[in-house]
Write a structure and sequence with these properties.
With 986 residues, this protein is α+β, with helices and mostly antiparallel strands. It is built from nine helices and 73 strands. Strand 3 and strand 4 (60-63) form a beta hairpin.
Length: 986
């Protein structure tokens, strides 16, 4: 019996402890997880977020929350310290500093610890104190006992410096620059120092911890714990004592009372803990002889079959004023209150049937819906005995089935509204009834059922009472409806299942299976999505809750999310919770969520039941930090490049023209959610790339010029890092460099100039030759024309003399007149032959004399007429001499001779534009008929042929036209016309 009392008291103490302190989570990492050795000496964190581990026998190890990387396995590290971008490593052999991928070492006594103050690193060694200054460690002379002894720790307070050694605790007033000697306060082996408010805690190896307070002459001794390895002041004013045999003992820094112990009982593999460290996210890490441990307080408390539930799968949750009621798989009903978990014995007829929904009535009785056994009512009106994890025999239970009047035993949802009970069946029926629990009598008030072709897609999924008293429901087919009197009013706003819904002030919020979360005002029911990134939350919404702070909680297959919303339910921030945050459930079960009277949230999953206590959440979320880890150019790593000299600096990396393929590796660290980090990059002012999990980016085929590569990361909270940028410049190839192009342009211009000069010179020479040739040709043509004229003159003379010879001797007067006229004409012809051009008036005068002479010699008389139509004086118009005469002679000789009637000769000169048109017309038989009548002869008219050639040379090939004048088939003459370019002597 006493043993049982002890057990009950222990259980009650445990429950009380869990109710006061938040839940804790301890996760261990050993050699199975990638650690090179199990013994970890110290843990530090760099600016990027990596954890650096000093191991005993495994060297320096880096941890990013997922993988361990051994950086240097040849060092047996005893102390670690991070300063800017460098890592100080203390060992038995001295000091090493890691900067980038390079190590630099100095020989000093074995290093116990490294601390930093005002930008200087201090080395606490086996033989005195050293400071790292001006690029090397320097010994600090304090006192012979200190200088030759083991220094374990160093503490800077506002006014003093405290020095812990193996032979005692020392205090130096002021700073090291003061010449005062330190004062020895005691002779204990002080291993660690911590300052808090006006106190200094000096932890010893075997005597406990001395507390030195301002104004107190003697220190206070805290005797437990003993065998201390190190002491750290952690968050919440807690002193964490890391011991060799008791694990971690946490004391309140003000009262010195024990708050918690972390040892093998809690899950440590070894009670030998060397060091504790709290990272930037508020997680505490323990360096132990049995591996690395992550310890943090969480606001979640998990229940499963290992901690009291009968099964892991949680079908339904319901909160009353006194307790939370849970159904697990087919194992019946459980109750959770301040006394723990109690299992309710259900009706034997419920064996192997799941309770899928839970509610309660005004009497406090519990109503449950089952799949296949109707409604089971558990009467909880009598007090229960204060026991935990025991089966309770109920005072009275009731099972309501089809035999009592239910339309179906497959009840999906149940709702109590005063005396009215609403039930939704698997056959898409909604019934309202009252039940007399004393008489065990059911009265059916309403039986509502709609008929649809596809009943399978219209199964009821959720049933709730709206704020205005209406009963609302949702279905598998995307329908949302409400009961108004005797009818159902429904709509189909979605294509996917409406898994769950809730009411919040004037809004209704709906969770669907494939379309995410939607909201609408109850007055208009115009749904719009609650905008959340799909990759952040997912689209399959299983659970919806509103906490007391107005945050929307969402359960999905991937875990739990808290959505911070504004007054219109627009998403402001999304916080995801998984196992790293203490939410150990897997795959949230539809509608299995509830809020109790204290504001705690309960979520059911297939992996158990989880309780969330908002008042216990002290979550620290900081934006990630990102850096470039490496760059390769044309697949060759730029290992010698100091990236820190370029990141976010104005310095530009110069690359040659062949280095046009660059690869950037970048990294952020999130120790709690390493796989949730996402990255994006930007090149120059282009759009940012989409977020992805890729930690490298290849840039190929880059042209020459200046570039800025920027990269950014974000964590699971969607907090974004500050972008980092890296500037580089690709030199253009030789052919595209400015100076080379300028030189080539100059050479090209010079070459083109030389070529142009040569061409121009050649053309000029050719033109000169052409001008000389044309001048010679013109001269030859002139000579030819003169020669032609000279040929024409004898021909003319010959013709005239033949005509005179033909005059009868009896006509002496006529012959004399003809000879006189011929003499005058011959004189004019000889005069004109000497000239290149004569006036038109002179040509007309010569033609008049020639026609007069021909009239004297003609056998058949003829008349002639000259028509002159020019605006320019005929004395000023110049034409070649003897140009018209051959045509006149030809008209007289061949056209007018041998006519049976008087002949007619018309000569005209007409000015048209830049041309002088000349025509000679007779009324003879026609030129073509005359040619037919000629006897076969070799004689050709040289004068006429030469004249044609002269006209062609002056006016072109088509300047001369010969035509017969006809009326019908009758020929009445010939007309010869040609044109000459007008040339004047002015």
């Amino acid at each position: 019996m006493p043993l049982k009392k002890t057990y009950v008291l222990s259980t009650l103490f445990l429950c009380s402890f869990l109710s006061v302190f938040p839940q804790t989570q301890l996760k261990g990492y050993t050699t199975k997880d990638g650690l090179p050795v199990s013994s970890i000496q110290e843990v530090v964190q760099d600016s990027l977020g990596y954890l650096w581990l000093a191991t005993q026998g495994g060297g320096l190890v880096r941890f990013d929350g997922e993988e361990f990387l051994t950086v240097d396995s040849n060092r047996d590290i005893t102390a670690l310290h991070v300063e800017n971008d460098s890592i100080f490593l203390g060992s038995q052999k001295g000091l090493s500093i890691k900067h980038g991928n390079a190590f630099q070492s100095w020989k000093v006594p074995a290093v116990n610890k490294i601390i930093s103050h005002e930008g200087q690193a201090y080395l606490l060694t086996q033989r005195g104190l050293f400071v790292f200054s001006e690029g090397r460690p320097k010994h600090v002379a304090l006192h012979s006992e200190i200088d030759h002894g083991i220094v374990n720790d160093l503490l800077f307070t506002k006014e003093d410096i405290w020095i812990a050694t193996s032979t005692g605790l020392w205090c130096k007033r002021g700073r090291f620059s003061n010449k005062t000697s330190p004062e020895k306060l005691d002779a204990n082996n002080v291993v660690s120092l911590v300052g808090f408010q006006d106190k200094v805690f000096g932890a010893t190896q075997n005597d406990g911890t001395y507390v030195y307070a301002t104004g107190k002459p003697q220190p206070l001794l805290v005797r437990e714990p003993l065998k201390i390895n190190s002491l750290q002041l952690q968050k919440d004013n807690q002193l964490w004592f890391c011991t060799t045999s008791e694990g971690v003992v946490i004391l309140d820094a003000n009262t010195f009372s024990v708050l918690k112990r972390i040892n093998t009982y809690n899950g440590l593999a070894s009670n030998n803990v060397h060091h504790s460290f709290t990272d930037r996210q508020g997680t505490t890490w323990l360096a132990t002889a049995g591996g690395l441990y992550r310890f943090e307080k969480v606001a979640f408390q998990h229940f499963d079959r290992h901690t009291g539930l009968k099964a892991d799968l949680t079908h339904a949750i319901h909160a009353t004023d006194k307790a939370v009621w849970v159904s697990s798989a087919t194992e019946g009903l459980s109750k959770i209150d301040s006394r723990g978990i109690q299992h309710i014995s259900s009706d034997t007829r419920l064996q192997d049937f799941a309770i899928v929904d839970i509610t309660h009535d005004v009497d406090g009785d519990i109503w449950t819906a089952t799949n296949g056994r109707g409604i089971w009512v558990y009467r909880d009106s009598q007090p229960l005995r204060p026991v935990t994890h025991r089966e309770i025999q109920p005072l009275k239970t009731v099972l309501i089935t089809e035999e009592e009047g239910l339309p179906s035993n497959n009840i999906e949802k149940i709702l109590v509204d005063g005396e009215n009970i609403w039930a939704a069946t698997a056959e898409r029926e909604i019934v309202q009834f009252t039940y007399d629990k004393e008489a065990l009598q059911l009265t059916l008030e309403k039986h509502l059922k709609n008929e649809f072709e596809d009943q399978e897609k219209l199964l009821l999924l959720d049933l709730k009472k709206g704020p205005r008293g209406n009963i609302w429901y949702s279905t598998k087919g995307g329908f949302l409806g409400k009961v108004e009197g005797e009818r159902i009013v429904e709509m189909k706003p979605f294509e996917s299942n409406v898994n769950t819904f809730l009411f919040h002030e004037e809004h209704i919020v709906v969770g669907t299976s494939t379309e995410g979360i939607w909201k609408a005002k109850q007055d208009d029911l115009k749904f719009e999505p609650v905008l959340i990134h799909e990759e952040q939350l997912g689209k399959d919404i299983r659970q919806l809750l509103i906490d007391d702070a107005g945050n929307l909680w969402v359960g999905t297959p991937r875990g739990l999310d808290k959505i911070v919303v504004d007054e219109t339910l627009n998403a402001v921030e999304v916080l995801h919770y998984d196992a790293n945050d203490g939410f150990l459930g897997v795959d949230c079960w539809p509608q299995a969520a509830a809020k109790d009277t204290e504001g705690n949230l309960w979520f059911g999953t297939i992996g158990g039941l989880t309780k969330y206590s908002p008042t216990q959440e002290k979550q620290r979320s900081v934006p990630p930090t990102i850096t470039l880890e490496g760059i390769t150019a044309n697949y060759q790593p730029l290992d010698s490049l100091d990236l820190n000299a370029y990141i976010n600096k104005d310095r530009v990396l110069q690359l040659d023209s062949k280095q046009d393929q660059l690869s950037f590796r970048y990294k952020s660290v999130d120790l709690k959610h390493p796989n949730a980090l996402q990255y994006r990059f930007q090149l120059n002012d282009q759009e940012w790339s989409p977020w992805s999990s890729a930690t490298s980016q290849n840039l190929v085929g880059l042209g020459y010029g200046a570039y800025t590569f920027s990269v950014q990361s974000r964590n699971i909270r969607r907090q974004e890092s500050m972008p980092v940028r890296f500037q580089f410049h690709i030199e253009p190839p030789l052919l595209q460099k400015g100076w080379f192009q300028a030189l080539m342009t100059l050479l090209g211009i010079t070459l083109i100039g030389l070529i142009a000069w040569a061409i121009i010179r050649r053309i000029k020479r050719k033109n000169e030759q052409e001008q000389e040739r044309l001048a010679l040709q013109n001269h030859l043509l002139s000579l030819e024309q003169k020669a032609l004229r000279l040929q024409m003159n004898p021909h003319f003379v010959f013709n005239v003399l033949n005509g005179i010879k033909a005059i009868d001797d009896s006509e002496s007067n006529k012959r004399n007149t003809t000879i006189n006229t011929f003499a005058t004409l011959l004189r004019e012809t000889l005069y004109n032959s000497r000239k290149e051009k004569i006036s038109l008036a002179q040509e007309i005068k010569t033609l008049a004399h020639y026609i007069a002479m021909e009239q004297l010699m003609a056998q058949t008389p003829f008349r002639h007429e000259m028509i002159i139509n020019t605006t320019i004086d005929t004395e000023e118009i110049l034409i070649p001499p003897m140009l018209v005469q051959p045509f006149v002679e030809n008209a007289i000789r061949h056209g007018l001779n041998n006519l049976d009637e008087e002949g007619s000769l018309n000569i005209s000169f007409e000015e048209k534009g830049e041309w002088l048109y000349c025509s000679v017309q007779d009324n003879g038989k026609g030129i073509f008929q005359t040619q037919k009548d000629k006897k076969a002869s070799n004689h050709q008219s040289m004068a006429l042929q030469v004249t044609k050639e002269r006209i062609f040379s002056l006016s072109g090939a088509n300047a001369l036209m010969l035509e017969e004048l006809k009326e019908g088939e009758t020929i009445f003459g010939t007309k010869i016309s040609f044109r000459l370019p007008i040339e004047t002597d002015f």
